[in-house]
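re: ur question from yesterday

yeah so i grabbed the chain u mentioned. its 276 aa long if i counted rite. heres the sequnce exactly as i have it in my notes:
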Amino acid sequence: MIEIGIASDNFRHDDRSVRYVFDWCRKQNNPVVEINTINGEDFFEGLGFSPAVSLQADGLALRAELDEFGLRVSQLDCHFALHRWQSIPYMINGIKLAQAIGCPYIATTDGAEVPKGMTLQQVFERAVYHLGEALAVARTHQVGINIEPHGPLTTNLELMVKLMKHFDATGLVGVNFDTGNALVSGNNPVEMTQALLPWIRHFHVKDVAPELKAQIGKETGIAASEVHVGQGLNADNIRQIVQLLKAKGWSGVMCLESKGESNTLKSLEWFRGVVA
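ran it thru and got these structure tokens back, copy pasting raw so excuse formatting
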């Protein structure tokens, strides 16, 4: 069964708190949320202007707050470029918090560019090593690590398949498929979904503004879409992906990503019609 999730990061553009997001989800009768995270403290979050949660937060208190709103978390976003050493504690702290709140997955990805002085193959090897370090904690906590297509490594289909096969035996490394990043990076989102489907555990459903058409194939992703889901270049691809998932009997959360509260509401209304 396909469930719809709401990304808390959508509300970052409106300077909303995570508690505002929780209340919004309850009012929209949408009980699944994906939470953006920071490893450390953020004064915007502390002042109530950021819908992110610190990975040093009290997990039991967060779980009680989620229960108050009748919500569950599908995934914690723990994005920090996989080739950098900081990705290791980011993932480990994310795994611990996820387990405390009953969340099955964290998500991570590579950086926007291949670092100066490194090759793409070296980025791959560094990602393998860093993921391996975090997997020791993932095993004991039974929390999966989902890799999102977003950078030059993860939007390269051949390397993504290679990465998934490398960790196949663990049963803990999968894909958080982002429809928008797939299109912007020059991939066919439907074909890429089909190729990665054995490993896809979670989705980011993101449209792409028509104004970005000239950038397709020149970038590897976008942080947020200026248009609501169903309004842009990716609408038909998203419909086809949902049809594919239904035909294959895929079950999981497809989380909506769009910039701002207004776009998020329009995305939810449109996507509910697609999934129905």
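noticed a couple things. The chain is about 40% helix and 15% strand. also Residues 120-141 form the longest helix (22 residues).
anyway ttyl
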